[in-house]
Amino acid sequence: MTRLVELEATGPRTLDPSDIDDEKGDVAVCQCGLSDTFPFCDGSHRRTEDEEDGETYVYEDGERAVVDRVVTERKAEDEDEDENENENEDENENEDESGGERED
Ligand code: FES
Questions:
Q1: In whole angstroms, what is the distance from residue 98 CA to residue 31 CA?
Q2: What is the pLDDT of residue 54?
Q3: 30 close to ligand 1 (CB < 6 Angstrom)
Q4: Fewest CB within a 10 Å sphere: which of 27, 34, 48, 62?
């Protein structure tokens, strides 16, 4: 199971002693992305308990939907860049420290 989550934060949230739950004595950080009190767990993760492996979910306005995996154009561009970087690395491995071709 996978979940698409939209977050608006652009930086970290530092925890301090006031974040400790008075009743439980701990701090529970949300890892499902559905908490209304993010970054703290509020129990919303229970909604994910019946998610199926191999599916991608979106939770919106209290509703859950299965969506196709999102593949971006950027991903394809990254793969092309990775191929070019690998080609450059191969070329560099064949050069010795003086910049000439290495004889194997
Ligand atoms: S882990 Fe996200 S609400 Fe509990």
A1: 51
A2: 92
A3: yes
A4: 62
Beta bridge partners of 101: 95
Ligand 1 within 6 A of CB of 2: no
Length of the chain: 104
Of 6, 16, 8, 20, give the one whose Cα is nearest residue 57.
6
What is the rounded distance in angstroms from the CA atom of residue 34 to the CA atom of residue 45?
7
Q: Could you list the residue range(s) of the whole structural domain that residue 55 is in?
A: 1-93
In a domain, 101, yes or no: no
Least confident of 10-19, 52-61, 76-85: 76-85
Does residue 57 form part of some domain?
yes
**Considering just the CA atoms, what is the radius of gyration of the chain in Å?**
23
In this predicted structure, the answer to whether residue 45 has a pLDDT above a threshold of 90 is yes
Please state the domain count of the chain.
Answer: 1
Res. 41: pLDDT tops 50: yes
